[in-house]
């Protein structure tokens, strides 16, 4: 079951009995929690936890009353539960998770308890139209770095990169423009732009582990000494991703960046520009358009559904740092 923030979750809770039974109470418990478990460099297990929901209700039986008789058949116990605003979305990661589930316990007068548990998924969407307006503006970075080991082969390489804006949703494309000027005597073997997702796991405010995966990339070939290269609104597709809004969670961060990397042919280290972006659930509307207007970003192919989980969590392509 998927529940959106700001809406109510409705029962009923159904109970199937094949025989007559006396019960002293039917208890319902809703739990939302974030958990991080990381093995440190000393092989110690580090654990942290925080709670978002801890709601209990009694669906049958009152304290001090005698047991109730349940006849064979299906019994329904209606309820209504409004989720508080600001809950982080459901998330499953390699070293931690945000989970929501409800538990039911049927107690017999003799002390025997029958238990059941059901997970439900919470989605807290991010609407780009409600985010700071700067996300609708271009994002820019620039760098100049000296390449080469001596005054003979050394020289500066200048790079300026801009994105058409700072916020996107899956199905849209990121427009990348760049200028690379190679004033050194070293050939740049390639330039590459990539979209990455980084998941950080924290314990007591410290990042204990992180994993990074490349989600999409665009690349070009070499730039010889004295030459320049221009990227003019190159398009990089944002693939379908699980909705991720972990605002309100202090144990897990999910960050998205566009990296622009220039790789020299020499032993010099790569030049790397990092531009943070926001990946949201609802796209920007045209300026001045009323609520409900369809998005109009050119080249967008919005998926009809988004995945709930990340299928690559067991992929060895992750870079894990502890």
From TrEMBL:
Please identify the protein, giving its name as recorded.
Answer: Arrestin domain-containing protein 3
Looking at the record, the residues that make up the Arrestin C-terminal-like domain are 153-284
- Superkingdom of the source? Eukaryota
Name the InterPro entries on file.
Arrestin-like_C, Arrestin-like_N, Arrestin_C-like, Arrestin_domain-protein, Ig_E-set
Q: Which GO terms describe its biological process?
A: protein transport
Q: Which Pfam families match?
A: Arrestin_C, Arrestin_N
The UniProt entry's sequence similarity note says:
Belongs to the arrestin family.
Mind telling me which PANTHER family this protein's record contains? ARRESTIN DOMAIN CONTAINING PROTEIN, FI21816P1
**Keywords for this protein:** Sensory transduction
Gene Ontology cellular-component terms for this entry are: cytoplasm
What is the species of this protein?
Trachymyrmex septentrionalis
Entry's SMART domains? Arrestin_C
């Amino acid at each position: 079951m998927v529940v959106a923030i700001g809406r109510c979750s409705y029962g009923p809770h159904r109970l199937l009995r094949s025989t007559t039974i006396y019960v002293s109470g039917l208890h319902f418990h809703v739990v939302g929690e974030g958990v991080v478990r990381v093995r440190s460099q000393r092989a110690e297990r580090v654990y942290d936890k925080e709670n978002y929901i801890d709601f209990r209700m009694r669906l049958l039986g009152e304290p001090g009353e005698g047991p109730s008789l349940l006849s064979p058949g299906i019994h329904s116990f209606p309820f209504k539960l409004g989720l508080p605003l600001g809950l982080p979305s459901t998330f499953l990661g390699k070293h931690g998770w945000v989970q929501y589930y409800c538990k039911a316990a049927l107690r017999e007068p003799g002390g025997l308890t029958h238990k059941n548990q059901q997970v439900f998924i919470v989605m807290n969407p991010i609407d780009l139209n409600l985010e700071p307006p700067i996300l609708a503006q271009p994002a820019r970075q620039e760098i100049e770095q000296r390449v080469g080991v001596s005054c003979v082969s050394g020289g500066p390489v200048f790079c300026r990169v801009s994105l058409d804006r700072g916020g996107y949703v899956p199905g849209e494309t990121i427009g990348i423009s760049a200028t690379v000027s190679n004033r050194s005597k070293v050939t740049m073997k390639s330039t590459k732009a990539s979209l990455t997702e980084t998941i950080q796991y924290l314990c007591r405010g410290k990042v204990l582990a992180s994993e990074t995966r490349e989600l999409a990339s665009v690349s070009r070939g070499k730039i010889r000494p004295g030459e320049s290269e221009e990227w003019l609104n190159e398009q990089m597709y944002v693939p379908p991703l699980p909705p991720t809004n972990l605002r309100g969670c202090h144990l897990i961060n999910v960050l998205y960046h566009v990296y622009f990397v220039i790789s020299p042919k020499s032993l010099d280290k790569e030049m790397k520009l990092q531009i943070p972006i926001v990946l949201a659930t609802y796209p920007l509307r045209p300026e001045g358009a009323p609520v409900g207007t369809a998005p109009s970003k050119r080249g967008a192919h919005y998926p009809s559904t988004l995945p709930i989980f990340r299928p690559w969590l067991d992929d060895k392509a992750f870079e894990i740092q502890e």
